[in-house]
Amino acid sequence: MSSTTRNATSANPPAAPPRHPWAAVGAVTAATFAVVTTEMLPVGLLTSLGAGLGVSAGTAGLAVTLPGLVAAGGALLLPVAVGRTDRRTVLCALLLLLAGANLLCALAPGFGVLLAARALVGVCIGGVWAVAAGLAVRLVPEGSAGRATSLIFSGIAVASVLGVPAGTFLGAVAGWRWAFAALTLLALAVAAALRAALPPLAGERPVRLHTFGRLLRVPRFSRGLTAVALLVIGHFTAYTYVRPLLERVPGTGPGLISALLLGYGLAGIAGTFTLGGLAARAPRRALLVVSAGIGTAVALLTPAGGSLTGSVALLVLWGLLYGGVSVSAQNWLSAAVPDGREAASGLFAGVFNAAIALGAFTGGRAADALGLPWVLALGAGLALLALPVVVSAHRAPGADPGIR
Questions:
Q1: Cβ neighbours around 352 below 10 Å, total
Q2: Looking at the predicted structure, is the pLDDT value of residue 7 above 70?
Q3: Could you give the count of Cα atoms lying within 13 Å of 197 in the half-sphere of its Cβ?
Q4: Rounded to whole angstroms, how far apart are CA atoms 337 and 334?
Q5: pLDDT tens readout for residues 83-140
Q6: Residue 150 lies in a domain
Q7: Residue of 158, 125, 130, 380 whose CA lies nearest to 271
Q8: In sequence order, what are the residues at sequence separation of 6 or more whose Cβ sits closer than 8 angstroms to the Cβ of residue 30?
Q9: Comparing 253 with 195, which gets the higher pLDDT?
């Protein structure tokens, strides 16, 4: 154990473990599921939401963009604002705020009110991820921390596979307002589960704004964060246009494309757990596998576009590998700065959300200016650029030998 870790441990004695640690992990997973479902639900409701509030589909898309941008800032500022406040209390408060924001969306008389509510959703997204991303090590024994981290991050993929489609279906059957009303009830239920399952979790150490600058001066940390940014920007540059890509493949139709996207999401869930074990043991190696695999799969989708079998295989491989991005990055960043896990999680969540927005923007500009094949080439190139960054971290000054 490093001296910094010993000092942190002695200054902040660990909280009493929860009586049912996996129930606690499950409650945190439900929180990540709830915020990601809420973040992405408007994607499936854009047409009806825009028609209901009298705006174009393009304008309605701001309901997706705005929370991501707010989340990027919220992930950095919330750990600073809450100080040493009990993290159980913080998570419960954020889920109650999420419930209120969703209720406001359901009752919004106009698009301006809905956007204000979605900005509050962004605060919840950034705050939940800043706290939840590094919480597994405080809830379960050390040997189970990797599996618990994978479970917490599986909320992302499960939201894509289950949460958003279910909300979209409810919106189609009963109207988009009822979809947001259902999310209100979900957030209230998760807040109750967090209150019941989590033990008191005092802040490990206060997070100050200058803490982020100190972490960025740690080479192994900053290079890991750079690699994650390149991977996520590359992924969303390409993934934003995956549907029109699949529409060009011979033999596909709306029903098959929906099934393929479901398969992509299921592969993402599998990837979170499959790569989670490697990420716990050797996060650097996991990021190398993910970077090389995503870059290669996306690059090959263009030449494979004439084959349904080839396109399906590459899409599933892409989903499997992308499922390992978050859990690999979290393990890397936590190992790089073991005395600053929560600040590291805040930076990670902030960079991740900013990269999502930047990737979608980059893909859109490339599609308009260059065409779909160049979108895939650009996305693949960005993902592959992460490889030399990860490799260089092995020789970074002060590199943690545990990051293999």
A1: 25
A2: no
A3: 22
A4: 5
A5: 778 889 999 999 999 999 999 999 999 999 999 999 999 999 989 988 887 788 888 8
A6: yes
A7: 158
A8: 155, 190, 193, 194
A9: 195
Cβ proximity of 286 and 275 under 8 Å: yes
Same domain membership, residue 193 and residue 214:
no
Q: Are residues 287 and 388 in the same domain?
A: yes
CATH number at residue 95: 1.20.1250.20
CA 97/CA 184 separation, integer angstroms = 10
From the list 39, 187, 41, the residue with the least C-alpha distance to 103 is 187
Q: What is the CA radius of gyration of the chain?
A: 20
Domains contained in the chain, number: 2
Task: Give the integer Cα–Cα distance in Å for 208 and 378.
Answer: 37
- Cβ-Cβ contacts under 8 Å for 145 (sequence gap 6 or more): 136, 137, 280
8 A C-beta contact, residue 122 and residue 67 = yes
Amino acid at residue number 213: G
Q: How much is the pLDDT for 297?
A: 92
262 in Cβ contact with 158 (< 8 Å): no
3-state secondary structure the chain: CCHHHHHHHHHCCCCCCCCCHHHHHHHHHHHHHHHHHHHHHHHHHHHHHHHHHCCCHHHHCHHHHHHHHHHHHHHHHHHHHHCCCCHHHHHHHHHHHHHHHHHHHHHCCCHHHHHHHHHHHHHHHHHHHHHHCCCHHHHCCHHHHHHHHHHHHHHHHHHHHHHHHHHHHHHHHHCHHHHHHHHHHHHHHHHHHHHHHCCCCCCCCCCCHHHHHHHHCCHHHHHHHHHHHHHHHHHHHHHCCHHHHHHCCCCCCHHHHHHHHHHHHHHHHHHHHHHHHHHHHCHHHHHHHHHHHHHHHHHHHCHHHHCHHHHHHHHHHHHHHHCCHHHHHHHHHHHHCCCCHHHHHHHHHHHHHHHHHHHHHHHHHHHHHCCHHHHHHHHHHHHHHHHHHHHHHCCCCCCCCCCC
- 5 within domain boundaries: no
pLDDT band with cut points at 50, 70 and 90 for residue 395: low
Note whether residue 385 is domain-resident: yes
Phi-psi region of 274 (alpha: psi -120 to 50; beta: other; left: phi over 0): alpha
Domain holding 235, by residue range, is 210-393
Q: How far apart are the first and last CA of the chain?
A: 16
